[in-house]
Backbone:
């Protein structure tokens, strides 16, 4: 390979020499060889630094962690007995001094550990931002893909060399894109982790997916009814799985189920063919649905988002302020409300039977779960909607306004919606990702810093926070990324939480 490189380099020099006539071949070639040597040495040194930064002896290698190939060969079979999940109502390992009254009047303990395998186009970004907000204030440890590739764990890349080590010895929250695999998740996350997921009505999911990834253009579909055109012959437009790495494994066929770990080897068995009778397909789908029901403590429904968030809050014993949210990635497009003929809906059911099986089952059992709640459940849902609107109205006016005081209720203690609350609620996920990477590097002292001495700022200086980037560079590791993704107010707040800036 080196000899080939040298030969190509020599040929390139000779061509340049022939063109310009008066270049000394020998000196030019020597200069090129020296440049190659310097480049190789630089790459070697950088590689050692990178390795030392991320693959240090502190790196948490999980015993029994399997390679991607082993996961594929040994992927969970439909109907296999699931790993036992803890009873989250009684888990005491992470009783971190926060207790409050549950809706039924008993005392519950705030839970911190959550596994949320993020599916595509189901409202997952909004839930992820709620988890970001909650975890940031409590300095929880997120399982982070290596900077800066927040989809670096997708689809089957949940292995130690692809993510940062935990803070404090264990991960608290997993919420980035990766295909769910029960065995791998349970190797990585502590035993008292709460497992949640969310589904969306499959036809609505298809429309959103087609819009987000520009599928009509990609598939050459024109006209005002692209969804109907697609459903008239879906195999013509979307015949395969395994798209580019940054895209889902499947665009239109059982994509929610595949993100949630449905084995690819079963896909042919759930497609309507002569060898696959409707009874056989239903049996396979039902077995998988049963598996997911055993694996997850809570399955949320996008069409009932506020109700889902209240169920989540009650299960986690959080305060109502912890689940206030801004919608993420909500878009409008021409065919969002396209009417689909009944026969094409049936065509879609046959094309993606596992997604329909999941949604139909958990949409039905969702209201069964609500029926088991205390009578004030719907009052809490209404209160959440009202508080969310108040938060939107206040934060949309910008920073610098007097704080809004929210009185205490049975679901929340008194709190203020102030500038800090609005910054956390509106921070984009790339900024959260950058700040969590900063926090991880700081905690492990994985980079040299000019100073870790806290800086004291007078209150009046906060009016010129946009001019503080020179000060911030005394602390940041990934300065360029932080400045690209975060507002200066975001990073100032981060430094205050880290104790590196004090305001008097």
Residues:
């Amino acid at each position: 390979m080196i000899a080939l490189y040298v030969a190509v380099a020599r040929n390139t020099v000779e061509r340049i020499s022939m063109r310009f006539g008066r270049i000394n071949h020998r000196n030019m070639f020597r200069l090129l060889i020296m440049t190659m040597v310097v480049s190789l040495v630089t790459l070697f040194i950088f590689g050692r630094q990178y390795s030392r930064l991320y693959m240090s002896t502190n790196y948490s290698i999980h015993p029994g962690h399997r390679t991607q190939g082993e996961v594929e060969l040994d992927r969970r079979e439909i109907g296999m007995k699931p790993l036992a999940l803890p009873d989250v109502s009684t888990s005491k390992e992470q009783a971190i001094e926060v207790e409050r009254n549950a809706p039924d009047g008993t005392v519950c303990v705030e839970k911190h550990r959550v596994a949320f395998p993020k599916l595509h186009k189901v409202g997952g970004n909004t839930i992820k931002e709620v988890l970001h907000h909650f975890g940031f204030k409590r300095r929880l440890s997120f399982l982070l893909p290596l900077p800066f590739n927040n989809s670096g764990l997708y689809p089957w890349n949940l292995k130690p060399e692809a993510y940062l080590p935990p803070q404090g010895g264990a991960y608290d929250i997993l919420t980035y894109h990766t295909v769910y695999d029960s065995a791998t998740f349970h190797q990585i996350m502590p035993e008292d982790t709460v497992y949640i997921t969310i589904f969306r009505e499959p036809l609505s999911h298809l429309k959103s997916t087609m819009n987000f990834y520009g599928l009509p253009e990609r598939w050459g579909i024109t006209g005002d009814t692209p969804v109907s055109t697609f459903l008239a012959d879906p195999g013509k437009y979307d015949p395969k799985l395994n798209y580019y790495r940054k895209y889902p494994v499947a665009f239109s066929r059982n994509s929610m189920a595949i993100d949630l770990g449905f084995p690819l080897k079963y896909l042919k068995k759930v497609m309507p063919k002569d060898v696959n009778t409707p009874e056989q397909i239903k049996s396979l789908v039902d077995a998988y649905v049963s598996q997911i029901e055993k694996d997850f403590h809570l399955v949320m429904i996008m069409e009932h988002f506020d109700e889902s968030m209240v169920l989540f809050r009650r299960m986690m014993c959080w305060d109502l302020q912890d689940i206030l949210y801004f919608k993420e990635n909500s878009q409008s497009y021409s065919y969002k409300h396209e009417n689909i003929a009944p026969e094409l809906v049936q065509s879609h059911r046959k094309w993606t039977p596992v997604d329909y099986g999941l949604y139909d089952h958990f949409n039905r059992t969702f209201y069964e779960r609500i029926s088991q709640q205390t009578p004030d459940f719907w009052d809490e849902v209404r209160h959440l909607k009202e508080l969310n609107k108040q938060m939107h109205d206040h934060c949309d006016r910008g920073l610098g306004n007097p704080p809004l005081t929210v009185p205490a209720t049975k679901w929340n203690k008194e709190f203020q919606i102030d500038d800090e609350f609005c910054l956390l609620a509106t921070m984009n996920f790339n900024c959260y990702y950058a700040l969590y990477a900063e926090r991880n590097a700081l905690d492990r002292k994985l980079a040299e810093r000019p100073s870790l001495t806290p800086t004291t700022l007078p209150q009046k200086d906060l009016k010129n926070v946009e001019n503080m980037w020179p000060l911030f560079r005394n602390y940041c590791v990934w300065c360029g990324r932080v400045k690209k993704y975060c507002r200066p107010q975001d990073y100032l707040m981060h430094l205050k939480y880290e104790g590196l800036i004090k305001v008097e």
Remarks:
- The first strand starts at residue 99 and ends at 101.
- Confidence is low (pLDDT under 50) at residues 1-6, 16-23, 44-86, 88-97.
